[in-house]
Amino acid sequence: MPKYNKLVRDRIPEIIAENGQTYHVKKLEEEDYLVELRRKAQEELNEYFESSKTNEAIEELADVLEVIYALGQVHGVEPAELEKIRRLKAERRGRFAKKLFLLDVEEGKA
Q1: Which of 60, 64, 37 is nearest to 47 (CA)?
Q2: Would you kindly state where each structural domain of the chain is located, as residue ranges?
Q3: Measured distance CA(95)–CA(89) in Å, rounded
């Protein structure tokens, strides 16, 4: 029997049961949930980095976004509020659309 020991999406146990398989899960306490969400975020980012096709990359980015929304909720912010914060920060500091790569900054020229 394969061991997974990882955070999964809510419907995964249902899907496993529909396939005629038996599973075991436990509900995480908040502290452990945050640890596992952070681990899941890293896992999803790694899967994005390893994707070689655009459609795979997009699927992995959607997974990353789902984990980010869950992390936001742990910290008390809903996806809409997180998006509002992102927009405000983009207005203040910009986005990444210009593809700028900062090489260096000279000190003392104020």
Answers
A1: 60
A2: 28-93
A3: 8
